[in-house]
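Reopening this one. Same input as before:
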Amino acid sequence: IKFNSGNATNCSVSMDAAIQTGNGVIGACFKIEPSSLSTPSGWSSLGNSAYSSPPRLISVAYRNSGETGSTITWTGSTSGGFVAFVAELYVAGAGVSPVDDYGQNGMFGI
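Same output, byte for byte:
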């Protein structure tokens, strides 16, 4: 899971490495002062929800497989503050292997 926040037209999250093509991916972008926010290319939308006063928008999207990029971007039309996350979901039997038995890579190997 990776997070990003900032103030920009687009919401983007950079993963530590390219997403493995067989893995599923889910993510969301919450944006302030948006007029629109497009789902990342090749992804499916789980929905967008907007609130007009003050203006806020959240876009949630996923991709079952086929993603090979390391940066995921929601395209916006206006600049504003945002918070976004992307989580890579490993297929059964796959995933990051810990370096040792002491869990130096964290609880889930990341």
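So the earlier flakiness isn't reproducible anymore. For the record, The longest strand covers residues 80-89.
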